Amino acid sequence: MYVRATLSALRGDHWREFAIRFALGGVATVLTGVIAALWGPVIGGLFLAFPAIMPATVTLVEKHERERKERAGLSGARRGCEVAAIEASGAALGGVGLMAFAAVAWLTIPSLSWFAVLPAGAVWIVVSLLMWFFRRPLRRWPFRGRRITA
Q1: Which pTM was predicted?
Q2: Distance CA 89, CA 96 (A)
Q3: What pLDDT does 148 receive?
Q4: Which one is predicted more confidently, 60 or 145?
């Protein structure tokens, strides 16, 4: 699989899909603010790491892939689920990178002030790329070679 950005893909989305993403992102942000107000900024900060538009993105990716296969005369249900799972696993791998960013920022902010963003950002990029590079061995790791089927 090659990762690439295609701006032409934006033309295929309907305005309602963008509205769903925007609304879900806003709801997640408001809920994070409420959590921070109720239980403090430390707990609220944990929820800031939630990928606000990921649920909407995963469902829309599944829908688009299913529709694309159905236009070709095939059943797209399985393929849609597979593509959505890949999207969700990418978000999880990025979350590990975000945890590394948070750890480095937490350790370096007292001494570096806002410059702590530079080493923390570098660690985030490196960890996220390493997670992507080792994603296949990591996928099998807890099962030690046993094949797991859904």
Answers
A1: 0.60
A2: 11
A3: 47
A4: 60
